[in-house]
């Protein structure tokens, strides 16, 4: 609770200004880079390249429209944490035990499924360099490296790796795309919302699953606990919220930016021939005649980094959320965390035996996430609109408050729209189309 | 070390033709072959390129695109063409399993009174255990759902009884919290 002079009364919602950050704003991008790396995985590569192959740059705008929604959803969980000092799963416990059970099932299924896709993608790249390596072995090695890193890692070390990984993969993808050629004018026009042709809305729905996907948007408060970003004072909470917003704003922006070289590579290489990418080598190999052999290596290296960091990210998010549900200590180097990581390792590695193409499966999985998410969003909306949110409550008395309400409603509206329309109404036909 | 891919160039007349393609694929997935024709001469060239499916094994692939393209290449220009969406099947027309093996496609080019041929080998490996479509989603999801029981057991053993229904402990300000958190605006 905030300690304010009772005679003056608490300040009106959204009336306090944060202390200026200065250069610290640039240095605050650790957890934001983790958020970015969760976004930029096989899903981003798959969706971005499919968009580029089918529509050039015309769907780049979807990343930023969905980014606003993703930002608002993360913001809801952070506001709740700052207001009550309670972790995101308490939101669901507050509403009904069934919501907690739903979250438990969704977390295990999505983190297992999501990480397995990333290990399969890592294996795809590895077999490109080492042809004799079976996909199951390549995926298991990538997963084992992720497990070792999580089990041995302190939070600060993991955050550093994610910052480095994010920079490296952005560099790799941009370098590959720049030598192939980016049409900057077309890219600029792609920021204007448009409907470029049949099939665009399915890719938009998959992107919604990737960008505003389930409880991944709830992870930020856990990183705040690890970094001790919590204050009992209202001004401290306002300062934290300000810095956190820049941080996850950067993460979401980075996910949108990295889509550009992916689209550019696919637009240059695949689009002229109507090839829908279903294999990393479709792009990496076909980049070579346009951009030289280094572009192939750069693209594959970027793809590996994106997939591996996202795989670790899925486990990390899953472990945090499960510890939260069972009121276990939210700490990366705790014993329950390690046990959870091992428990994710086993099924996500065994699933590699199915040998489903991760490019193809990621499109399905992203659409699946759009179905999982709406309940999560609606419960959060219900919780953060209650009057006990205090200083962080909905209020139309200031411009900041009104903007926040608009962003919250936009995010939830978008998520419910995709969940109902693309999830339930078109479930069968959507998923069985190749 | 090189990214495993097929790259082969043939010269005929003033035209050079290079084929780029992956040299392995899963069964049930597609192979795409990209052709780059460069005209290094001083006059236009017309080149017909044809794809030959592996002799006697055409039924091991599904391909609906054209088997021949005609490329018109101005002097000094480069033209790209592709044979896209060649699916390696795991069952033939009468549903017999197709053994995994190395196939050899033939890419032929004719023009300017000259011809060239490129043999393109591609190896198939075991593809997905389920058909593309809904089962590629349901099966992994169902297996993960079953695994929930293992997670539930492990977490219940580590947690306090009934913890999953009770709110977690409230966070409090740590003495080790970063100093910037408590900063105030000047004059604020």
Total number of helices of chain B? 1
Mean pLDDT of chain B: 87
Task: Note poorly predicted spans of chain B.
Answer: none
| Record field, number of beta strands of chain A | 0
Determine the CATH topology of the largest domain in chain B: Immunoglobulin-like
Strand fraction of chain A? under 5%
Q: How many DSSP-defined strands of chain B? A: 10
- Mind summarizing the main beta sheet of chain A? none
Overview in brief:
With 434 residues, chain A is an all-alpha fold. Chain A has helices spanning 24-27, 30-39, 42-55, 61-84, 89-95, 97-129, 135-152, 155-180, 184-189, 200-211, 220-226, 234-269, 280-291, 293-325, 335-350, 358-384, 399-425, 427-432. The N and C termini of chain A lie far apart (53 Å).
Explain how this protein is built.
The complex is a heterodimer of chains A (434) and B (188). By secondary structure, chain A is an all-alpha fold. Helix content of chain A is 73%, strand content 0%. The model of chain A is unreliable at 1-6 and 428-434 (pLDDT under 50). Chain B has 188 residues and is mainly beta. Helices cover 13% and strands 40% of the residues of chain B. Chain B has a 5-stranded antiparallel sheet, with no helix packed on it. In chain B, strand 9 and strand 10 (114-125) form a beta hairpin. Chain B starts with 5 loop residues before the first strand and ends in a 30-residue tail after the last helix.
Question: Strands, helices and their partners?
Answer:
The complex is a heterodimer of chains A (434) and B (188).
Chain A (H helix, E strand, L loop, with lengths): L23 H4 L2 H10 L2 H14 L5 H24 L4 H7 L1 H33 L5 H18 L2 H26 L3 H6 L10 H12 L8 H7 L7 H36 L10 H12 L1 H33 L9 H16 L7 H27 L14 H27 L1 H6 L2
Helix pairs in contact in A: 2-8, 2-12, 2-14, 3-10, 3-12, 3-16, 4-10, 4-12, 4-16, 4-17, 5-6, 5-16, 6-7, 6-14, 6-15, 6-16, 7-14, 7-15, 8-12, 8-14, 10-16, 12-13, 13-14, 14-15, 16-17
Chain B lengths: L5 E7 L2 E7 L2 E3 L3 E10 L5 E8 L8 E2 L5 E6 L4 E11 L13 E10 L2 E12 L9 H24 L30
Parallel strand pairs in B: 3-10
Antiparallel strand pairs in B: 1-2, 2-4, 4-8, 5-7, 5-9, 6-8, 9-10
